[in-house]
Specification:
Blueprint (H helix, E strand, L loop, with lengths): L20 H15 L5 E5 L6 H13 L11 E7 L6 H16 L3 H10 L1 H9 L8 H22 L14 E7 L10 H14 L5 E7 L3 H8 L7 E5 L5 H13 L1 H5 L4 E2 L1 H11 L3 H14 L4 E2 L1 H9 L4 H16 L4 H11 L6 E2 H7 L4 H13 L3 E3 L6 E4 L2 H22 L1
Parallel strand pairs: 1-4, 1-5, 2-3, 3-4, 6-7
Antiparallel strand pairs: 8-10, 9-10
Helix pairs in contact: 1-2, 3-6, 6-7, 9-11, 11-12, 11-13, 12-13, 12-14, 14-18, 15-18
The structure holds adenosine-5'-diphosphate and magnesium ion.
Length: 420
């Protein structure tokens, strides 16, 4: 059996990583600044599948020195974590403590240091219900203990004098937090990070750096928690890859087949063009369409037919992508069939701009219900309205349009089969 080299469901390894030159440049600067005791944090914002987790993985390689950064070999202590709806402040604190302990607790003096400086964690856990992190005073106390312990640890591991009992000198601590848009009100992430960084700075070090990744709405989540917390970050928006970068990803992935299968899988030129077209610059889509095409291929060469059938066939890539990205927008977020009718009409023009008049010509309902539908769809971000002009709209991307067309044709087929 041939091994499929496309991996739609796992983040990219550094060897497979393509592009993101600007993003990397800004993050490298942040690392170098922080190493020089001038903390800079970054925030990676982007849609699902745009490559946030992959980029965080790469940053870890830079920060830990496996990949050189502008002739520097960095040596940050990197802590990786992510946030769910249930993550509490104490939960986050424990994750950070655990990661530090695992990395640093390698000798007797280090163990002694941990049981003293970080002893409050055990105390809290031991105290059980007596200390309640939901109670304001207790939460503040936990925060105090945590920030001092972290500052103390940070100062020691970045020093070369005798206070460093850890056999290694670090440039600083980098905390990477993925899925940060999940932060609950209770976690209060913006305030937490702001107070923590201020406190650490007062303790005389700025070698603590945060790298957050999340969906675009992370910005609102942070602002709601603390209006000025957003200023803590270099705000990096991730957009689609360029066409050449998409081709590069395909090339890299296919190169890896030599090792996986003992020979290199090729791709016909028209197939590569088609795959690039389907991918629309979304890294996740390259892997999803590529995966389906490879499955249908003979393993030696991917043909145009493989790409097309893999995309629109039964359980094909488009179906999978649609279930992940579009289904909610089409079925859940909107109630009326009239809304869907508008989307169906718009999908005929793919993701090109359509005027309201063009929609109206095909729309069966009243003018009023058309207005309502357009209003609702654009306020929910399902369609985009053209900046600076009234009454011109488009769908978010071609994939959405293709998927809607696929749904419509499936429904039509169902209807004709049923009526037979
Ligand atoms: N720069 C890149 N180069 C190559 N492949 C990438 C790149 N960024 C993402 N990918 C691929 O795209 C898919 C989604 O990436 P991921 O990092 O999980 O996105 P996100 O975290 O934004 O949802 C994965 O299959 C990953 O391998
Ligand atoms: Mg991710």
């Amino acid at each position: 059996m041939k091994i499929n080299p496309f991996k739609p469901n796992s983040p990219s390894r550094p060897g497979m990583f393509v592009g993101r030159i600007n993003e990397i440049d800004r993050i490298e600067s942040a690392l170098i600044q922080t190493k020089a005791n001038q903390n800079v944090n970054f925030l990676l914002r982007g849609e699902r599948g745009i490559g946030k987790t992959s980029l965080l993985n790469l940053v870890k390689f830079f920060a830990e020195g496996q990949i050189e950064v502008r002739d520097h070999q960095l040596n940050f202590l990197v802590i990786e974590t992510d946030i769910s709806k249930d993550t509490t402040q104490f939960g986050l604190i424990r994750k950070i403590e655990y990661a530090l302990r695992r990395r640093l607790e390698k000798s007797e003096p280090a163990r002694n240091f941990f049981s003293e400086a970080w002893g409050f964690i055990k105390k809290i856990e031991g105290a059980g219900f007596k200390i309640n992190e939901n109670k304001q005073e207790d939460a503040e106390l936990i925060f105090e203990e945590f920030s001092y312990s972290l500052a103390d640890t940070l100062k020691r591991i970045t020093n070369t004098d005798s206070s460093n009992i850890f056999n290694s000198k670090y440039d600083g601590i980098l905390v990477l937090i993925d899925k940060s848009n999940n932060a609950s009100k209770q976690l209060d992430l913006g305030t937490f990070l702001k107070l923590l960084l201020e406190r650490i700075q007062k303790e005389g070090t700025e070698k603590l750096m945060f790298g957050l990744a999340g969906l675009p709405k992370i910005k609102e989540v942070l602002i709601e928690s603390h209006p000025s917390s957003i200023r803590l970050f270099d705000d990096i928006q991730m957009d689609r890859l360029l066409k050449e970068e998409v081709e590069n990803v395909i090339e890299r992935v296919l190169e890896s087949t030599s090792e996986l299968n003992g020979f290199k899988t090729l791709i016909d030129d028209d197939a590569k063009r088609m795959l690039t077209y389907f991918a629309e610059g979304f890294p996740h889509f390259i892997h999803q369409y590529g995966f389906s095409a490879f499955e249908l291929s003979d393993g030696k060469t991917i043909t145009n037919d493989n790409v097309i059938k893999g995309a629109i066939g039964r359980n094909g890539a488009l179906e999978i992508i649609g279930n992940k990205y579009y289904r909610d927008d089409y079925y859940k977020k909107i109630q009326g069939d009239e809304y869907r009718e508008v989307l169906n009409i718009m999908s005929e023009s793919l993701d090109n701009w359509v005027t309201k008049k063009e929609i109206k010509d095909k729309f069966k309902g009243t003018n009023n219900s058309l207005n309502n539908a357009i209003q609702a769809l654009s306020s929910r971000g399902i369609i985009v309205s053209k900046e600076g002009s009234r009454g011109i709209y488009r769908l978010l991307d071609k994939g959405f349009a293709w998927w809607i067309r696929l749904k419509c044709s499936q429904e039509k087929n169902k209807a004709t089969t049923n009526s037979k």
